[in-house]
User: Fold these one by one.
Assistant:
Number 1:
Amino acid sequence: MNYSFLMIVSLALGLATGFIMHRSDFCMAGMFRDFFLFREKFMLRMLALAAVASMALFEAAREAGLLPYPFPLFASPSLANLVGGAFFGVGMVLAGGCVAGTLYKMGSGSLLSAIAFVGLVTGSALYAEIHPWWEGFVRATTFFTGKVTIPQMIGIGPAPVAMTVVAGGVLLFRRWGRGGKMERRSRAEGYLQPWKAALLLALIGLLSVLITGMPLGITTAYAKMGACLENALFPAHLAGLAYFQTIPLDYTSPLGNTRLVGGPGCRFDAVAAVQFPLVFGIVAGGTLSSLLLGEFRVYFRIPTRQCLSALAGGTIMGMAARMAPACNVWHLLGGLPILAGQSVLFLAGLFAGAWLGGRILVKWVARY
Amino acid sequence: MTAMGDDNPREIELDLRGQICPSTLLRALKEMNCRRQELKDGRVKLVIKTNNRDSTTTIPDTAVNMGYEASVAKEGDYYRIVVEGAGDGAGRGA
């Protein structure tokens, strides 16, 4: 099986994502956190734009017969999506960035994000310890069994729902645009207006779906890293963990007709081929952007409290990404645009978690 | 109120480079609130060093909303944000 094409594509998409996110400060953790801490809605508008643009692009591709619908790995909703989303929200705020934000910030020299990255890998591996129990919870709380998206649940085609949401979105964005709410003046060098970033990220998501058959996702790669680390340290224990034996992905990609098979275990498979280059690309994109601006620099004088917060936040987020399952990028720019029930619940949980994370941050971490 | 300030207000430097988001804004807010009178009188000015690109927008916007003046300059690999009292009490952007 030849994955080299997929790997090159994923690397390129990752590079572009990291670069764009760094230039536009497209920090999704910040979007939710600042909504609660400072009543700042600007970046949430940008996230809405990215989601609605993705919806329009995915729906057009689906109509053209280029898209698997729904995407692989999405399942029927359960309470696990809500609870996982809430833990994820707490984790990303304490870590100072989501799973993608942590990568591009680490790439631009952030020590705290590097610590959060260690936490992400640790948390993803820790999840394997509770996997059998958590699977039971997922099974017990799944509803609309056999149905993945909201249109499927209410028994209508995806087209009318998508067209209605997109039309409403266009009207809203135009109104905000006229009111000057879609742009902001930045004094940062090389700043990319976030509305442009939102549209570019939607385009990157479309390319990912067309080529790999899946929206952007990176968190199974974290579990894989954790598994490999554990394999080196405690191989006997790892062999007994059911989670690392699972193969959730088994699917044929739309372009190239490649059969993609993979899971969180420590081996080279389709998940590794798609996600490792993406992870590396996002880090490298952040590095490239900051180097070109002359802003790459590692600062070591950071309060211990903040380092602990990044480690704890990363660990919680890593674990939550397996519980949810999947991360904010997967759900908000992949699942939400096709109105996957899982992603809607994840978003609801994320709001609650970000609120709580903000409270903890102000009270314990950035206490002035 | 004494309108006049020193020609050279005392600088309060906050070096927040490398710190977790949004501690730069939180710390700046704290200082802007606690030193309101000194800032307005022109006795002090805040000098914030940050490498957080987002802070170059959020801090000046917040400062201007609170009636201060703010300016941003890039100094090598970080940004230097200066917040001081606007002479006439009306905020002006950088």
Note: The CA atoms of residues 149 and 339 of chain A lie 5 Å apart.
Number 2:
Amino acid sequence: MRLNLNVNGRAMTADDVWEGESLLYVLRERLGLPGSKNACEQGECGSCTVYLDRVPVCACLVAAGQAQDREVGTVEGLADEEELAPVQRAFVDEGAVQCGFCTPGLLVAADDLINRVPEPSDAEIREALAGNLCRCTGYEKIMAAVRTAAERNAGTGISGSTGGDRE
Amino acid sequence: MDFLRPACWSEALEAKANHPDATPVAGGTDVMVELNFDHRRPETLLDLTRIEQLREWSRTERAGVASVRIGAGVPYSRLIDELGTSLPGLAMAARTVGSPQIRNRGTLGGNLASASPAGDGHPPLLASNAEIELESVRGSRTIPIEEFFTGVKRSAMASDELVAAVHVPVSTGPQQFSKIGTRNAMVIAVCTFAVALWPERSGVGTGLGSAAPTPRSAPEAEEFLAAALTEADQWDDPRPLPDSITERFGELVAQAAAPIDDVRGTAGYRTHALHVLARRTLSWAWDEYRGGTEFSGRQRCA
């Protein structure tokens, strides 16, 4: 089937999509957007987290056809042409990346959090990231990065870049 | 494979009538896992995410009881955000489902249609005597949740039916839910327990999950506790519960279970855990009842 959807603010079309494949497969294999990672394929690890109509979801659990005419935001859409998004900048600054496989999903989940909750508590950060697994290391630097991103985000008064054309 | 994308409810019912083997998919948290792992290759997928009315909830009255009618497609995240006060037990259970990503997609309708013995939404629905509204092109019927589950992942739904909504009575007293798992997120329950106090009718509701081939309530535990509370005039004049009562309640809940050994836990562990969960959740609920004046069911006398 043919699939029309909006990804990171751009209208996109994928052809010959198999009806049983996931949005994750479409993004990675048909639309050239390999930022969202494919690991567990059962919603367990969060490394494929994307925005679907501005809500974070596991792309591996969205049937491709369910994304027809929907708005998808991936990690590739977080930064603008010039600058990294606050969460990306903070992950770099805090050294919150090791192998990097879980990072795209964590970035989308963290981006959603800091745009919903201006001053998240540690408990709120942990809860927001409960669906994202990192197998390299502990979560301390990731926690630090999200705290930093939230502080900077609150400081600028500008909501960070998010999926699609979210304002 | 066919992918059917009905735009409205009547189209969905027609599609299900014409393709009784079609697999309905909403949040995809069960169906997509089976597809991704090649465990199932349904000939037809029936996408329900475009049907706006499934994503709505409303306040209703059923046989004089204030209720909430929850469309089958309302995700867990909205049960938490929007219905936490009216349906606290269900909201507590919803908070334990998966992760934020899963709660943004997973629905109560999908939980019911999958009819897993481990479904987190089922115990609070049992404790509230919820009713399930099923619909097909032949018409609509509403059945008590006690009659909905017929076996492991089997329900009373006919092949042409879809879950339209769930009717849940608004809480009139404290409700609690507790779940055992290896961590605080992303776990399939080792076992779960829900309890609800219904002071206005001197009633007690219970629900057990991952404890038997189907989710089930513990009627003997409910009757015992309700009678004990009435006998001691505890509904109108709540005092600390004697240990003999919480202990017996826990025993009766554990006796209602028929668990198995599996990868998540042994039958023996589950039985023990249910006993503990029942005692604990009852204590929490009772503390809340003793401390609370906000419940409309029974006004405290001066």
Note: The interface with chain B takes residues 1, 18-20, 22, 41-44, 46, 49, 55-58, 60-63, 65-66, 68, 109, 112, 127-128, 130-132 of chain A (CB under 8 Å).
Number 3:
Amino acid sequence: MTTTTVHAPATPMRRILNIVRLHLANPWTTIILPWVILGIIFAGTLAVWALILSVASDTADARDGLQYSGSNFFIFVYMLVVAVQAISITFPFALGFGVTRRDFYLGSALTFVLLSAAYSVALTILSLIEEATNGWGIGAQMFTTFYFGETPAERLLVFFLAFLFFFFVGAAAASVWVRWKATGLVMFFIIIGLGLIGLVALIFFAQGWPAVGEFFATAGLVGSMLWSLVITAIAGVTGFFLMRRATPTA
Amino acid sequence: MTTIIEVSNLTKNFGKLAAVDNVSFSIEENTICGLLGRNGAGKTTLMQLLTGQQFATSGDINVFGQSPVENASVLQNISFIKESQRYPEDFRAKHVFKSAPWFFANWDADFAERLIADFRLPLDRKIKKLSRGQLSSIGVIVGLASRAPLTFFDEPYLGLDAVARQIFYDRLLEDYAEHPRTIVLSTHLIDEVANLLEHVIVIDDGQIIIDETADELRGSATAVVGPSGAVDAFIGNREVLHRDGIGGLASVTIAGLTSTERADAAASGLELSPVSLQQLIIRRTNLTELGGNEKEIEARA
């Protein structure tokens, strides 16, 4: 007969890493499916482009069109959904495993940072291949489109910041949901909406549009993206404090 | 005996509703305790408070000598299995059993595998597509194989058939004998678990109406059966918990008897029979619900 032993607490880092493992326990949603979708979109887009090139009379004009593709934007929105599910559905499950809210949130945040890093590195590598193969042989620009940045380093940073933004905004929205359910979420969107309208009105009446334009022009793509970190950080911290008092209700 | 859970003056309000209303009790280490009560009595809320999932409105909770709220050193020794457990999107049962050992230091993978075979649980099917009973068996397996020093089962076997429930009781008792630990079990199927329970706490309308060892509780009532006249003469002014009658025969449940009283009853030609835990709890719950109208019951009797 062996009495079950009461264990001393695992180190905080171990507990947080266990949450990362929990989020990645089923790699299908977080790792496999996004690449399957991206692969299909990529192959489909390339096929359509190749088809257009083969029939276009004005090839130069057609080639111009290959420089823009929004087809991989889905992956950012997809990660927002991943964050929403990770916070809202995995939370009550983790509590049943004896996890504290603090460890759960910090572990989830670390998961989001790690996924952002991995995905931005992967997309940057694809952009390098795209450059090396002269746009997959047909001058296509899926991963090197100008709005991702001009150099590989810029692209890496822009991808990373964009992923962080979508993960943490998703996490914050999900925290509002976990804490106050549908009513809270509706209030949340109303407040955000009113805030945005107020901001637009303020800029309009202060005739500040030129200044806003100038701000983004001066900041440039990378500079503007760096400013997104402010929103990302606010979302991340808000999510933490909301989740610290959240309860799992059926 | 060491006290593992100590609760004093605990209250949890949801708006105007007092789901748990100024409750005090304690649970000893290495016992199986039944937390019983009607739907909405406050069982789940109480267990959520004990596991730090809900925040108390007022009062004190000590689990392993500390507050459980956001306390990793307490919580990682607790496994809380609830009927309505949700699982991460797209999880299959195998993902649950893969991740459980990261959180439960005593996890026994061999035991889990035996239980999976016992319950015939498909590991590779999406949890969303499992039947109600299969879903319950995931929780039961986690609760048993985690061997947490403090395990809560909240209505763990919704949808499990009688065979599966018996497997659960058997495995629970076997494993408890090998690896003693504290188990708090909430259920509606009182008679099924009556033999497992060493301690019984009954909660009704947010308040604890019974907090006794199972033996005390069983000895606390007896059914006296015999001709109505003889039964009435025997019970005298005693408090009547319940009365049934057919023709000239009566079966009256009264508080427990001393051995002399038992002998008297036998001498009057009356038969004494034990009252099942379930009957006992139903009767005592009804009494409190009638708001102390025992006299009225007696008047009817």
Note: Chain A has a mean pLDDT of 90.
Number 4:
Amino acid sequence: MTILTLLIPVTLVMGAVGLGAFFWSLHSGQYEDLSGDAERILFDEDDKPLAAYPPGHSGTTKEKTP
Amino acid sequence: MMSNLTRAERANAMVIAGTGAFIGLVMAAAGRGDPMGAHGWIVLAFCGALFFVVGSAYEDPEPTQDRTASYYDDPTKVGILIALFWAVVGMGMGVWVASQLAWPDLRFDAAWSSFGRIRPVHTSGVIFGFGGNALIATSFHIMQRTCRARMPDQVTPWFVLLGFNLFCIVASSGYLMGVTQSKEYAEPEWYADLWLVVVWVVYFVLYIRTLARRNEPHIYVANWYYLAFILVVAVLHIVNNLAVPASLTGAKSYSAFAGVQDAMTQWWYGHNAVAFFLTSGFLGMLYYFLPKRAERPIYSYRLSILSFWGITFFYIWAGSHHLHYTALPHWVQTLGMTFSVMLLVPSWASAGNALMTLNGAWHKVRDDATLRFMMVAAVFYGLSTFEGSFMAIRPVNGLSHYTDWTVGHVHAGAMGWVALISFGSIYALAPVLWRRETIYSWKAVEWHFWLALAGTVIYVFAMWNSGITQGLMWRTYTESGTLAYSFTDTLVAMHPYYVARTFGGLLFLIGACIGAWNVVMTIRRMPSETPERDYPTSSESREPALPAAE
């Protein structure tokens, strides 16, 4: 079953990537306001992106207004 | 549609389409006399048509409005319509395939219409054509809404959507010509597989780029489900399709693995295609559209995140349960079985979470068929994940494997869960997307719902009965120790169930046709207006939701 020497490492690496993503989300404050996060998707009656770009900006790169 | 593209974007699109057409021409020339040559002409026609569509609008005026002030919905709209098209084609093929099993003469004696060729057209048509396009379209919608940001550019989403559909067309037309690498749900040959890798990597990068631009600090849980779907499917697809082409001018290739090694790779892929294509992505759909439609936040957001990580870490180990009682080492079978049983926990957490979200909004479920689609989808998700864990247990598998029970299980998931959540999401999405007052006909949505539910129930019950009958007949011995029934005896016993299955599938197909018609009529006939809430008029569901019980 030499195939397992490929499949198990590939699977473990995917698990490690997942674990990394989980720790990133944990440490970057993704889970600090869970009830607010769940509710906020319900409030977008205007159905527009938040105005994060200065007027006239092309919007091709991330440039937040101060 | 083209008027939303800048001239530079149109030029980029033409370069990409032109390159594709050139590759098609090369394939057509190099693969003369082989199905690859026919595929070359298909690629050339597809890319050439796109080249001319964009080219004919190249000189049109450029967009003037501030594009950061709105979401980019054009690819989502086209994706939804393509998904509905594939639903009708794929389910239509399904009904034909099912009819062939009941009445074999319906093959009409042609090579291309034999069961082995049109069955993958059905499976790929519904899984990749319908499911895949629904996933891509809804992911474009959800990632922008939950990030409160527009997609980074306007060519990439088109590349992903149309590139994926080119893959679907090459795959389906190949099956009819007899092109297959004989791996379930991974039938397309090497050049189609390579193309899908390109499309999929671009899709992943697009998703990450949109997330990086988000104006909402929190990444909503649906995005995690979609990301897992994209990333894991990419890895599975690459490993399972490692193959050596017999020649660069032909479609035939040979897998890099042999025997049970190949089988293990295939089912490591196959079961995770179920996990990450048919579950993870659709859970993303559920976690966005169900709370939106019910106007209530998800019952336990914490649980939705926990079940995401549970599914991500458990599912990947479950594939070997497809190879019980084979040459696969016993411990590998046991490993797959154990993880399959463990999977019940995160699966039921999601199903229960969805249903608990509706607690307090049952009057909406009663009045709104769209929400009912999603509710029943969650129920079928719970049912089929329970059934799946159960069937993965070795002695149960001894009865169920290779019988129609498996087919019934797959269809409980595919029709009851995947298709119903997709249709529910499409009905919720269409008025919002096309800025229509409401859906064209609520009565038609009701009809679709009941036809789909009846079709699924008939189908699944027929296959349960057929599968268990078949499994028991196979293992019945006479007193002298010989098999009591011949294979033909089992076929005769299964025939009435095959007729019932065809009928159930037909009901489901009629429902899908009604759905496609209803969406098209919504676009064409309904007055254009930003909907306050797209709910059926004269129903109680317009009432504000009760505050969520905390």
Note: Residues 151 and 210 of chain B are 5 Å apart (CA to CA).
